[in-house]
UniProtKB/TrEMBL annotation:
Belongs to the SURF1 family. The lineage of its organism: Bacteria, Pseudomonadati, Pseudomonadota, Betaproteobacteria, Burkholderiales. Its main location: membrane. The chain crosses the membrane at residues 197-217. It is a multi-pass membrane protein. One of its GO terms (cellular component) is plasma membrane. It comes from Ottowia testudinis. CDD domains: SURF1. This is SURF1-like protein. It is found in: Cell membrane; Membrane. Keywords: Cell membrane, Membrane, Transmembrane, Transmembrane helix.
Length: 226
C-alpha cells in the first residue's frame, strides 16, 4: 500500500511539472514574434530550449532541391508525409529547415511523391520554433533520397553542406501550395500522469479494502459465528 501510494503521489508531482511546462509554452506563444536574425547565428543549447514554441517570421529563399518527405506521419486519420524544405535566410549565410506542411501518401505507390509547389524568389513565412518531430520505428539506417523515416539534422548538414540552424520552424497558416497545416496543439502529456496516478491510488485502495476484509471483517465474522 505504501509503495502504490508513493507511486501515485510521484505521478501527481510529474503532472504538476508538466502543467508548469504547458503554462510556459502558452506564455511563450503569446510573446511577440521573433525574426530571422534570431536564427542567423549559432544558438547555445540553453538558449535554443528557451526559444522553443516562440512565434517567428522568416524571410528567405526556398532550396527545393533539398526537400524531404518524412514518412508515416498521420493527419486527421490519414497517412502521409511531413514536408521539409530548407529556407536560406535573407541577409545571412544560414538556412533553417522548415516543416512546411503535410501531404497524403499515394494509396498504392508508397514511394510516389505527391505534388508540392515551391515558390521561387524571396518569400516570407510565419511559424513557431519547434523541436524535431518524434521518431518512428525504422528498419536499418536511412538510405538517403527524399523520403525519410526520421530526421537527423547532423546527418543532413553533412549530406547537403548547408549551415542549418539547430532548431526547426513549423510553418503556420492556411493550406497552400498543396500542403495542409492542421497541426495539433502542443501537448505535454499531463492527462497520462493523472491516469497513472488514478490507477496507483485505485490499486492502493483495493489493497486496503482487501486487507480490511481478510484481517478485520472476516475474522470478526467467524468469531461471532463460533
Amino acid at each position: 500500500m505504501a509503495l502504490t501510494a508513493s507511486l501515485g503521489r510521484w505521478q501527481l508531482s510529474r503532472a504538476a511539472q508538466k502543467e508548469g511546462l504547458q503554462t510556459a509554452i502558452l506564455q511563450r506563444q503569446q510573446l511577440p514574434a521573433l525574426d530571422g536574425a534570431t536564427l542567423a547565428r549559432p544558438l547555445p543549447a540553453g538558449q535554443a530550449r528557451e526559444l522553443m514554441h516562440r512565434g517567428i517570421t522568416l524571410r528567405g529563399r526556398w532550396l527545393p532541391e533539398h526537400t524531404l518527405f518524412l514518412d508515416n506521419r498521420p493527419m486527421a486519420g490519414q497517412t502521409g508525409f511531413y514536408v521539409f524544405t530548407p529556407l536560406m535566410l535573407t541577409g545571412s549565410g544560414r538556412a533553417v529547415l522548415v516543416q512546411r506542411g503535410w501531404v497524403p501518401r499515394h494509396r498504392i505507390e508508397r514511394t510516389k511523391l505527391p505534388p508540392v509547389e515551391t515558390p521561387g524568389g524571396e518569400v516570407q513565412i510565419s511559424g513557431r520554433i519547434a523541436e524535431h518531430p518524434p521518431r518512428v520505428y525504422q528498419l536499418g539506417d536511412e538510405q538517403g533520397g527524399p523520403i525519410r523515416q526520421n530526421l537527423d539534422l547532423d546527418a543532413l548538414r553533412a549530406e547537403t553542406g548547408l549551415p542549418l540552424a539547430t532548431v526547426l520552424v513549423v510553418q503556420s497558416g492556411a493550406a497552400s501550395q498543396g500542403l495542409r497545416r492542421d497541426w495539433p496543439e502542443v501537448a505535454t502529456g499531463v492527462e497520462k500522469h493523472y491516469g497513472y496516478a488514478f490507477q496507483w491510488f485505485g490499486l492502493c485502495a483495493l489493497m486496503g479494502v482487501l486487507l480490511l476484509w481478510f484481517q478485520v471483517v472476516r475474522p470478526l465474522y467467524r468469531a461471532r459465528r463460533s
